Structure formats: C-alpha cells, structure tokens
Input
Amino acid sequence: MSEALPSVEEALAAAAAALGSEARPGQLAMAEAVARSLDSGREIPQHLLVQAGTGTGKSLAYLVPAALHAMTGDAVVVATATLALQRQLAERDLPVVAQSLEPLLPRPLTYAVLKGRHNYVCLERLHRQEPDDDGDAIIPRSELGKQAAAVRTWALETETGDRDEFGDSIDARVWRGISVSRRECVGEMKCAYGPDCFTAKRREIAMQADIVVTNHAMLAIHAVEGIPVLPDHDAVIVDEAHELVDRVTAALALELSARSVEQAVSRARKFIRPSTADDLEEAAERLTEATRQEGRYREAPRDLLLALTSVRDSARAAVGEIPSDDDLDTLAARQRARGALDEVFDTAGRLIAATTREVTWVEGGTVKLAPLEVAGVLASSLMADRPVALTSATLTLGEPFEECAARLGVTGAWEGLDVGSPFDYAQQGILYIARHLPPPGREGIPEEALDEVGDLIDAAGGRTLVLCSSWRAVER
Output
C-alpha cells in the first residue's frame, strides 16, 4: 500500500481524543499487543491472552489495531458473548473509531454486525402467513396474540428485519412464526423473496466490511463446525473471552425430545405417507417412555438407545418421501419439513454415537449431549490457522496464563498480558461485609438488609448501584 499507516499510539490517541479522553498506559500496552498478534500472520500465528481490568478502555484497545490491520489484509472478526456489547461496538465504539481515524487512513473504515439467520425476519414466512405447525396456536385476542400482531406490523415495515430492532422482548412462539433456521431456508436463489432477503443483505454487507462483529456461537459454527457463516478473515478478536468455553459448549450441544419429533411430524405430514407419519409418532412415544428416568449416563440405557434408533430410522424414511420437485407453492413448506426431519435424524444419530469425550443426560423429558471440554476442538479449528486475540476483564480469575491458555485451546506461539486497571481499588474503594445481618430466607432479602442498604446509600450521598440476584429482590 502506497500510503503509510499511522502508528498504533497515534491512532489510539486520535480515537481517545474523539471521546474526550487520553489513551491510558494499559490501553496502549494492550493495543500494541493486539497489533503484534494480528500482524503475526496466518502461517505462524501468535495468539494473545490479555486481561484488561475495568476502566482500561479495551474496546478501543482492540478496535484501533483491528482497523489498522484491515487496511492491509482481509477482514478482522470481533466476537462477543452478549448482544449488549455487540450494540455498544456497532452503535458507539466503531463509529468513533471510523470517524476519528478517517483523516489518518487511506480509505474509510467499514464495519458490520452479523447474526445468525434466526435473528432476522423471513419474508417468505411473513407473507405466506402460515401458522407454525408445532401445536402452539396463538389466540388473536390474548396478550400473545396482541404481540404477534404488533410484531407482524413491524416486520412489514422494517428495513433490517433484525429482531433486536423491535425493542421489546419477543415471545419465542411469535418469532418462530416469521423466521426460519438455516436448515429450513430454501435458499436465496430459489426463494421468491430472495432479492429482498434480510439475512442475505446483512451477509453481503459483512462480506465487504473491514471489521465484522458477531457472537461466540456464530464463531463456533464457522470455525468448529466448518459451516461458512462468516466472511473470509485474517484474524479474530474474542471479547468477553471468559465466556467463550461455555458459549462454544452450548453451540456444540445437542438435544432431542418427543415434542421436537412430534413437531417434525406435524410439518411433514402433508408430504409423507400416513403410515410413515404414524411410525415417527410411535417412535416419539417410545422416546417419551425412555426419558422418564432423569439423570446422567456413562452409557445410555438399552431402552433409550432403542428409542433413539427408532426415531433416527423413522426420520430417515420420512425424509426420503418428501417430494423434491420445483413446485414453488410448496417449496418453502417442504424445506421446513425436510429441515425439521433432518435435524431429528442427525441429532438422534449423534446421541446414539456419543463418545467418552461427551456427556449425555436426560432432563425434563429431553435427551441432551455436550462435549466434556472444548479446548481440543478450539485448538484444531479456531486457533489453527490465524491469530486470535482473547480479552476480558476477568480472563484468568487468578489462575496462571498457562492454565487459561490450556482451557481455551491456545497452542503454539502466544503471549499473555495483564494490563491491570487504571483504578486504584485499595485507595478508592472500601469492602464492607455486614456480618451482623441474618441470611436470606424464603422471603428473600430480610428487612434488616434493606435498612442497611438504605443507610449505605445515604452514607454515599446517593450515586449507588445495588446488584440483586433476582427480580423479586429488585422489586423489594
């Protein structure tokens, strides 16, 4: 590139000034470490583990070097655990970085947020107005029915189709009626609404972006499961990395219940023979009986294995009967039926073939499976061929960086860095333990504790954040 890029220190100073502050020593140290990691390349990547305490300004500390790196290579993916941080990055931090660095960069910085398909309205489902065949009928005059009407009105007017744009929390049953999973989608090329598909539009924007913000689950699907849901990228930054193991474990977990089998039958019934549908319903009944005993299994009981085998074989037979013609009137419904049956078939097969590296248990009539650890799969996938910088305010929780690296699957060359916090907690804070208070009981926080909280708020002159463990406690 003909134009020289600014140094990390210069770029960080510009971004911090745009927020009315100055770059902090720990923030600069982190930014320079992130830059070293991102620029190490894909042949011999150097990973980074960086713990940055509250007040460091870690978002700028990784977004600034990410912006500089993106000017010379492919995109950088930033993965977060929570939607709240995604929104902060997209609505506050990235606009500041893009605007403040514009005079220093050879071209404008571009960025995009990319979520899973199920987070966007499916126009085909919306316009067909077909009920979700899962037995969850929504009564129009009920509160749920009123929400469904409001959501549908919004969905017909939205320009993004993003579930979060609606504002209020949307009941899962309502959202299920206007969205599809990856398996249920007929594909942009076959869908009548393909040119206007919200998911396709977001992915097209992400394909052109310098920085792509996504979540841990999408990162796991792309890197671990090998499903290309993210654009090509040179490097990865994982924020809220203390959550990564749990989020990846959840993304790789499976579950199957008689209800999910029955829902698949409901969607497929109009396309398969009655006897085939009956066989699958009988398999669901066997699964119901086999999951009455809850608990964790080293080896699944014989009756559970037989029930899962019956479900798998019946689902395979049903999939084979769904027509594969090009009738556009039934294409989407057939794809939803096929997707539901494929999900049942694949999940039952995986549960049958569970290994000693996985744990299987029954809970609430559902058979569940999850990996015992994910360090191995992270090492062989996410960490294998590109630099990954992992950061959190609580990354190590007192353990050595070596133990943290092993838990996260970080192998090969890597650097561990703790930049601390600009706050002097010993001088600026007081730890107070009210040992004289009675413990919480069935009624929640005792009156004495509420009185104590009131006294502490008065002593602090207000300016107090009270954290509670339940909504009931908040309401008190």
Remarks:
- The chain has a mean pLDDT of 91.
- The radius of gyration is 26 Å.
- The longest helix spans residues 328-352.
